[in-house]
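Tokens help. Our protein:
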Amino acid sequence: MIPVTNKRATRVAKALLVHPDDSVVTLVEPVLAGDAVTFDGRSIPALTDTPSGHKIAIMPIAAGAPVVKFGFPIGTATAAIAVGAHVHSHNLATALDGTLAYRFTPKAPAPTREPEETATFEGYVRADGRVGTRNEIWILPTVGCVARTATRIAAQANAALVGDGADGIVDGVHAFTHPFGCSQLGDDLDGTRSILAALACHPNAGGVLIVGLGCESNQIDALLREIPEARRPAIHTLVTQLAGDEIDEGLAKVAELVALARSQRSTVALDRLVLGVKCGGSDGLSGLTANPLVGRISERVVAAGGSVLLTEIPEMFGAERLLMDRAVDESVFHGIVTMVNDFKRYFLDHGEPVSENPSPGNVAGGITTLEEKSLGAVQKAGRAPVSHVLPYGARVGGRGLTVLEAPGNDAVSCTALAASGATAILFTTGRGTPLGFPVPTLKIASNSALATRKPGWIDFDAGEVLDHGFDTVAQALATRVCAIASGAATAAERNGEREIAIWKRGVTL
């Protein structure tokens, strides 16, 4: 403990009390020892210098007792903690262990926020009724050997067909490269194939060129068998080992796809939106500002009849019961249970603890345990009931909130969201990241300092809720989401950040 010996004037720092049962508050601004920490009409002195986003104890906590935030335990105190003390890795540890047994005890649905009656966006209505937020040509290599070939075709096609002087038939040509597709076996190869097939069916792609090498494990014929017949006219293929000049042939095929992809935007309601939600590089404010703000958008979309996809299964550990309690029926409940316990076994089978999360960046930002991170992460779903559970690589088929199987890794999980059909992704962050993905990815800062420091990365400042409240800022975010769904560029799109990553689970030959 740092004794208070300075003679400076005492400053006042704001903190947030999330739930009346909490034993800690989260700092909105940094404090020095002796500063007054104010929250919920109360004030306590800070005992130590503590950064913004970190936690301060507001009641004595005995060693071995639970530390409570969000109204739930986020771990166990490893030492006695005094009022005003910094609560973090030096005195708080996870209580998570292996797989658990759960019982189906459904609760009455929480009231959700009504959608805006006039909320619409300008989307591309496809023949199957789905609606895209972009009209692009996607180039998908079957194997890493032709990744650079796919990139070269996309670059030249953009210059020739979408650059200055073009007639703007499509919004862009993009290659999504990866290192897989050969030397994979069984479920691992099936996962690669499923993700690529799902991306090939995406409504944001007016046309798709699949580029293969010819001798790879991930053969084009097998890939095409996973794509519905109705989608085949919008898909061309190129086997480079059989081509003369693969770049010229690829460009010719893309030109044919561009001609086929002619489409105009039309006005549609929020029930046609498929929204993916994700958090990455979180800090101590992510679960208090950005994630619950996104949760309000999720509720609006679900209430309007649209679809929301929530993933990052390992970042549900410790908060999974909140989702299980909102399962619409026992089948969905058991689907969540299976997915959570299977993921825990995946960690344990590889000799890793289920609580290895949070990352060093999360810890520096104030998140101490996986329970704390998870309780903040699930806020992105709001209070919407869970209607569906989907395995990795599967495509969304129903409306409402869907829990999708994928790990927490930003690139892998966002690729899974896009492959499942998300036409836009809301990505919250407290630390910042430049990454972008196949679909428009709107980066939402949990704190205003990040939004100010990295305007080239950040699209929206959720720190505004601290000054203006959730209702006002949620309306501004909803307006921004509709604008981006209608064609406004995200920061990642302006920066040319477009990536995919495929979940590698098996052996490599």
